[in-house]
Specification:
single chain; alpha+beta; Heat Shock Protein 90; five-stranded antiparallel beta sheet; 4 helices; 5 strands; 38% helix; 28% strand
Length: 137
């Protein structure tokens, strides 16, 4: 992430409107960065982002009044993370291997099908987490 030259950080209230705001701001950033919204990775990436923000709103709002979305891109990579202050760390790939129809199963399946990676990282203080997605462009 540190090596990607283009970055944007959004802090959003943990409400349903955060999903639309995150998507719209991500689309604007991608256009400004010269990444076509018609690139085959971008549609699925926006779906993944929306699912992660939705999960934070649904499951973490009580402990996390705000959600942070971090976007970064380089010439051949688009990466993003959704951070909240709920310490629960879901097993992304467990959702995929267990045949789950959950949103996290969709996140894992889409990320894998695009040749990307998904990682859950806990905060140093143990009171929050980020889910990081890295996708090739």
């Amino acid at each position: 992430m540190e090596t990607l030259p283009r970055r944007l950080i959004l802090t959003l209230p943990a409400r349903g409107s955060a999903v639309r705001t995150a998507r719209e701001n991500t689309e604007q950033a991608l256009v400004q960065w010269g990444i076509s919204l018609r690139h085959p990775t971008i549609g699925p990436a926006l779906l993944i982002l929306a699912e992660l923000v939705t999960n934070s709103v649904r499951h973490a709002a009580a402990l996390s009044p705000t959600i942070t979305v971090i976007l970064a891109a380089g010439s051949d990579t688009f990466a993003f993370a959704v951070h909240d202050r709920d310490p629960y760390q879901p097993a992304l790939y467990g959702a995929l291997t267990n045949g789950s129809n959950s949103g996290l199963g969709t996140v894992a399946e889409l990320t894998t099908s695009l040749g990307g990676t998904a990682v859950v990282r806990g905060d140093a203080d143990g009171c929050g987490k980020s889910i990081w997605i890295t996708l090739p462009l």
